[in-house]
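User: Show me a protein chain along with its predicted structure.
Assistant: Here is one chain, sequence first, then structure tokens.
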Amino acid sequence: MVIEVRDLRMRYGSTDVLRGVDFTAGLGEVVALLGPNGAGKTTTIEILEGFRLPSAGHVRVLGQDPAKGDEAWRAKLGVVLQSWRDHGRWRVRELLHHLGRYYLPYATPDRSRPVDTDELIEAVGLTEHADKKVSTLSGGQRRRLDVAIGIVGKPELLFLDEPTAGFDPHARRDFHDLVHRLSDLEGMTILLTTHDLAEAEKLADRILVLAGGRIIADGSPDQLSRQVAGKSEVRWTHDGQRHVHTADDAAEFVRDLFRQHPTGVSELEVRRSTLEDTYMALVQRHENGRVEQEEVAVL
């Protein structure tokens, strides 16, 4: 396992932020960590990166305790934070070339480091801006540069925190293609946080939902949808009237519908539950359960 977390706990004063988090991530896997604000996502990521010590639990990242990671271990990680880095006076190519040189001592026979500067610039879509100062880049272009800085050392594990914030649709699509190339061709494991559920559905092999300091769901988007909803919404028009029905088996319901009305059904639409529906149902179920537990405790 590239990431192995068991019974991870974090307490700030008398407040338990993480209450026993368990999950793993394998080689080349893209894992999305979702959850409402305050769920503990940032704390979890900072512990995995070695920037914060946990209160308790077992954590191994690339086979090592992050709290004891040395420079050779850290060279295997890539981090893309939400905030920009302040390198305004540097030109794009010069900055990436300079940062890449720090990874040269950590190259191995099976993994050369760093990524070639011009190849990296092309991969993130900054070729036309390679000789511009960072201070002159737009917000979306700076975000692309953040991504380039995160992968310049050809990491084995990449952390992405809201990676496409500020991207236009074209840049977002290019970035999604880049993530797939990194995981499929480079075998890079990627752990990302995002509030864009459509993005998580496109990118992630597996989705973790963190709420109340625990992982409350773990699976592929399809697995989570089947786990929570299980129903599809069927819409159709008959004799000028619009009808809506929920069905456990949409295919069987549609067959029955055409048997009843062989020529009179139009505007047929079958809508499966989306990841957003699933996510909201999971979080709401967790919140309702927590409220019930609190009420019992009060009684």
